[in-house]
Design brief:
The complex is a heterodimer of chains A (230) and B (225).
Chain A (H helix, E strand, L loop, with lengths): L11 H34 L3 H16 L2 H22 L10 H26 L3 H9 L4 H31 L11 H12 L2 H30 L4
Helix pairs in contact in A: 1-2, 1-4, 1-6, 1-7, 2-4, 3-4, 4-6, 5-6, 6-8, 7-8
Chain B lengths: L2 H40 L4 H16 L2 H11 L4 H5 L2 H5 L2 H26 L3 H9 L4 H31 L11 H12 L2 H29 L5
Helix pairs in contact in B: 1-2, 1-6, 1-9, 1-10, 2-6, 3-6, 6-8, 7-8, 8-10, 9-10
The chains are: A mainly alpha (230), B mainly alpha (225).
Chain lengths: 230, 225
């Protein structure tokens, strides 16, 4: 137990901040994922073949390639790409990009592919009559979406989105390979310096379980809220 | 684009693919047995056995695979007692540790898939078997299992693809699988995009094959309905 003490003698405070970091990365990644879903869901549902192809390419590639490989691409390729852009503007110094941003971006792209599939499924399972009725009533296109399609879509999407959240939360453990100090990395450091990996990795497992448990409780509440009236 | 690097790294990545396939098939094989065992335990009426099985799948599905590998590879070696038993022969090898972690992980997901498949079997099928005087054992093997296989195939196909991606974590415990070799080439040449394209295509190709194999099996097992 003294291993978990707060302050200089134990790892309690470090692990506490690491847990906050995991939550922060997960939320950022999920938000970035939503932006990607916002771009790619319309592409997948588009009438045009080329746009369809772009949307399908994104979800197929990202969901078919290991997360770790995507993270390595961003970790090794990210600063290179930015330095390349900077060199075009005449800046030739080495640029190191923030591990938090690279990590969130890599996980965000992965999470976005899953979110895209969820949104696509939700929109497609809304009754066609709803779109037609809205059109017939002469409701404007964006109001159609916000007031008629979106509320129905969310009810269908939320249970699946909570799955995406769980996946995203667990995927953040992988960015420990880039050196960002989240739960996994902190446990690795603590295990290395105390030579007690069994305890620290088990404790990390407990922290992850706690996070998945709490988020499941919260998301269930959201699910109930959005499915009222059904 | 460095085409030469892409061509040169292809054979290296292809040899590493065999390790990935070996890891995948071994863990799916053991995972299926573990999954079946825990699915049967889960359907048991005894609350202790039932809860135990639920706890197993909850813990393994609620924690990242990376933590599970690290606990088994780095953690278990710390127990002095284990080092003196025969088990140590297996547990000191990163290859077997990865397989154990993957099997336990996929076993947890498989048990959930199989459980829901068993639960959705219409009671009429079992009743029909009973009224024909077929013994419980044969009802289980000849009626429940084939239907459960059919029901669970789409979800199990997804699980195989998730596991294929999961095997990439073997590279974190020093195994040189496809991702491990890809990372090694990236970190020596600093050409991440080229290597990503080659390694990613190999993974996508495997995903494609698994996807079609499952489709084929789904057709084959759609003997009723």
């Amino acid at each position: 137990m003294e291993l978990l003490a707060f302050g200089k003698t134990g790892w309690g405070d470090e692990l506490f901040y690491a847990t906050l970091m995991t939550v922060a990365v997960s939320i950022t990644a999920m938000t970035i994922g939503f932006f990607f879903a916002l771009i790619f869901t319309p592409l997948k549902l588009s009438k045009y073949k080329t746009l369809n192809l772009i949307g399908n390419f994104y979800t197929t590639v990202i969901r078919g390639v290991p997360e770790l490989l995507v993270i390595y691409l961003f970790f090794f390729g990210g600063s290179g790409a930015i330095m390349f852009v900077a060199s075009m503007f005449g800046y030739n110094e080495y640029i190191e990009i923030n591990a938090f941003l690279t990590g969130s971006f890599a996980i965000g792209i992965i999470s976005g592919a899953y979110s895209t599939e969820v949104f696509r499924g939700a929109i497609q399972s809304i009754d066609k009559g709803q779109f037609e009725a809205a059109k017939v009533l002469g409701i404007k296109k964006h109001i159609q979406f916000y007031k008629i399609i979106l509320p129905q879509m969310l009810r269908l999407a939320i249970p699946n989105l909570s799955n995406v959240w769980q996946i995203t939360l667990k995927d953040t453990s992988l960015i420990s390979v880039t050196g960002l100090v989240e739960i996994m990395r902190q446990s690795y450091i603590a295990a290395g310096s105390t030579r007690d990996p069994l305890f620290f990795y088990s404790f990390a497992a407990v922290l992850y379980l706690l996070l998945t448990y709490l988020s499941m409780k919260l998301l269930n509440k959201l699910e109930v809220k959005y499915s009222r009236g059904y | 684009m460095d085409l030469e690097l892409m061509i040169n790294s292809f054979p290296k990545l292809l040899t590493a693919t065999f390790i990935t396939i070996k890891l995948l098939s071994a863990s799916l094989f053991f995972g299926l047995f573990i999954g079946l065992l825990f699915a049967i335990l889960r359907l048991n009426k005894n609350p202790i056995i039932n809860k135990f099985s639920y706890g197993y799948s909850y813990v393994f599905r609620g924690t990242p695979l990376l933590v599970q590998i690290f606990i088994i590879y780095y953690g278990l070696g710390q127990i002095e007692y284990l080092r003196s038993t025969v088990l140590w022969v297996i547990l000191k090898e990163p290859y077997w540790c990865a397989i154990i972690a993957f099997s336990l992980n996929t076993g947890a997901y498989t048990s959930e898939i199989l459980r829901s498949a068993f639960q959705t079997i219409k009671p009429g099928f079992i009743e029909a078997g009973k009224s024909l005087g077929i013994s419980n054992k044969i009802i289980f093997y000849k009626i429940q299992i084939p239907i459960a296989i059919k029901q669970s195939l789409p979800a199990y196909g997804n699980e195989i693809i998730l596991m294929l991606k999961g095997t990439s974590l073997a590279s974190t415990v020093t195994l040189m699988d496809l991702t491990g070799v890809a990372k090694y080439i990236i970190s020596t040449t600093f050409k991440p995009i080229e290597v990503f394209i080659v390694a990613g295509s190999i993974y996508l190709f495997m995903t494609f094959i698994i996807h079609n194999l499952i489709k084929f099996l789904e057709k084959k097992y759609s003997f009723y309905q």
